[in-house]
């Protein structure tokens, strides 16, 4: 089994969280296809700090910069096929709320959702649980 460390951003603005709608699915996620919503983030590379990885992934996926990342004190683990993800979650703010979000080829859409709105979407495992945990953090 392949184990992957993953950094995830819960980016919050006005009591809403930023989710992206995936079109390009990783092999371990194909059972959830097509078009599933999730919190942005990605794999932590060898010898890479989780927060540095997250900032890199957000820049690659959304063409924006995040700031003020606070580690959410809960680890999320999910097993899919022959892959296990160990997720490190951060509550983050945008460095500049006037930044234009430009999605890369992985996603076709993004949106800002309350917990209640996100709960009605087709999401990857643990997405709602992660949002709820991030929402407990007071900045």
UniProtKB/TrEMBL annotation:
Under Gene3D superfamilies, the record lists: Nucleoside Triphosphate Pyrophosphohydrolase (3.90.79.10)
Q: Which GO terms describe its biological process?
A: AMP biosynthetic process; ATP biosynthetic process
Origin: domain of life: Bacteria
Which PROSITE patterns does the record match to this protein? NUDIX
Q: Which InterPro entries does UniProt cross-reference here?
A: NUDIX_hydrolase-like_dom_sf, NUDIX_hydrolase_dom, Nudix_hydrolase_domain
Q: Which UniProt keywords apply?
A: Hydrolase
Annotated GO molecular function terms are:
bis(5'-nucleosyl)-tetraphosphatase (asymmetrical) activity
Q: Where is the Nudix hydrolase domain?
A: 1-138
Output this protein's name.
Nudix hydrolase domain-containing protein
Q: What is the lineage of its organism?
A: Bacteria, Candidatus Roizmaniibacteriota
